[in-house]
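Thread: quick sanity check before group meeting

JM: Hey all, I'm pulling together slides for Thursday and realized we never actually wrote out the predicted structure for the chain we discussed last week. Dropping the sequence here so it's in one place. If anyone has concerns about the input, flag it before I start.
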Amino acid sequence: MSSPDQHIQSEYPADGGSPADHALAEHARADRAVVDHSPGDPSPDERSLGNLPPAHPRVAWVAGTGVSGSLQSLLGTVVIAVFVITFIVQAFQIPSPSMQNTLLVGDYLLVNKLCYGGGSVGDYFMPYRKVRRGDIVVFHYPVDPAQHFVKRVIGVPGDRVRLVNKQVLVNGVPLKEPYAYFSHPADDFFRDNFPRLDVLSGPTPEWWVQMRKLVEDGQLIVPEGHYFVMGDNRDNSYDSRYWGFVPQANIIGRPLVIYWSVRAEVDPTVPSSMSDRLYHFAYVMTHIFQITRWNRTLRLVH
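JM (edit): ok, ran it. Output follows.
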């Protein structure tokens, strides 16, 4: 059986050195204790009991802080995205050929919603501008505001608008319209020679009644706060000729750029059912390089 002296001596130099050597060894053990066992931390034996908190609670605190920071960053991104979509730009897609060839079916647009202002006091302090003749605008369809239309402004308040054999005249002057597209001969009296008070305008007879009050010398007078709009595809556009003026309050903004465009044979509208949506998404993702019209992508709208 070993004596206490032998147990203590086992931590000193094995060769039984001098007292000075023993003192150096004791000092070294004290240094290791400082390095391996920080003040306030439990000893390894105490940790083995399993009744104490983790050796480094700071790690858990840092991890919690990282998660909180990520959530705050995500929330900030969502808030910024909602602000941008609500007040600055919004994405729209073209589902019909009424603006051909300027905008085609399958074009996806970013629309500037700050271009024209909101009709408030702040309009006097911001770099807004008025709607101009020739502008392409996105607006709430007056007959059904839930729908969005995109057309070109032909007449602004006070203008006198008239069409003779497809030629647009504003205030008696023919408009130069290199963007206008015609696919049929001049064979529709109401469409190609406007305004016509002897022909009912179709599904909106109330517009025909209103129009009679605004025609003078064969010209339609655009009232204050309203705009006369038409599609660039003049023979296939359901526009102001058929349903009337666009109020200023209905205008959402002006298209800036075509950020993506898909071929016409691909239906750009998203299906309503969940299964069809998933199929549509999968098809687009797996054929994105084949269906994209690269020559139209990132094209400015004017």
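AS: nice. Confidence is low (pLDDT under 50) at residues 1-15, 30-52. The first helix runs from residue 4 to 9.
JM: adding both to the slides.
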